[in-house]
Amino acid sequence: MLAQGTVSALNHLLSGADWARERLRAFAGQQARIQGGPLRIDLMVDGEGYFRRPDKSADEPPAVTIELPADTPFRFLIDRNSIFAVARLSGTADFAETLAFVFRNLRWDVEEDLSKVVGDVVAHRLVRAGESFLGWQGQAARNLAANVTEYLGEESGMVVPKRDADRFATALAEAAADLERLERRVAKLA
After folding, report:
1. How far is 190 from 180, CA to CA, in rounded Å?
2. Which helix (H) or strand (E) holds 41?
3. Residue 126 vs residues 13, 75, 112, 120, 177: alpha-carbon distances, Å
4. DSSP for 100-125?
5. Of 46, 131, 154, 190, which alpha carbon lies 20 to 30 A from 12's?
C-alpha cells in the first residue's frame, strides 16, 4: 500500500514536470529500487516517463538501487537536500544520474493543488502559514541540536568541547616539534 501511494505521489509530481518525464522516457522499461531501513519500493519507468510498479512475475534485478539513510524522515523535515548527499546509488550510471537529478529537482506545487480545493487566496495564505510553521520547526530542531551539543561538551563532560580538542592538538603538535628538535640536538652530540 505504501509503495502504491509513493508511485501515485511521484506520478502526480511528474504530471506537472514535462522536463522530468522527458528525461525518464529514455529509460522506459528499466527498474529502480528505493530502500531505507525496512522500506523497499520497486519502480519501473513506463513509455510516458511515469513510474509504475513492476510486474512481480518479472523477477529482474533493478538497474539502479538507491539506499537512503536511516534518518531520512528527519532529514526530509530539516534539510531535504542532504538526503541525496548521503544516499548511496548503485547500478547503471546514466539511469542513476537521471533519477538523482529528477528526485533532487522535482517539486510539489502545493499552492496549485490546494487552490483547486479552497481557492487561490486561501491556498496562498495556507501555504505561507505552512512555510512559516516549517521554518519555525527547522529552527527549533537546529536550536535543540545546538543545546544538546553544548550540554554534552560544556556541562556533562561526556564530550570534549571543540576548543579544548583544538588546544590539545596544538599542544601535541608543539610537543612533537620540541621532541624533533631535541632528537636533532642529541644526534649532533653523539
Report:
1. 15
2. strand 39-45
3. 20, 23, 12, 10, 63
4. HHHHHH----HHHHHHHHH-HHHHHH
5. 131
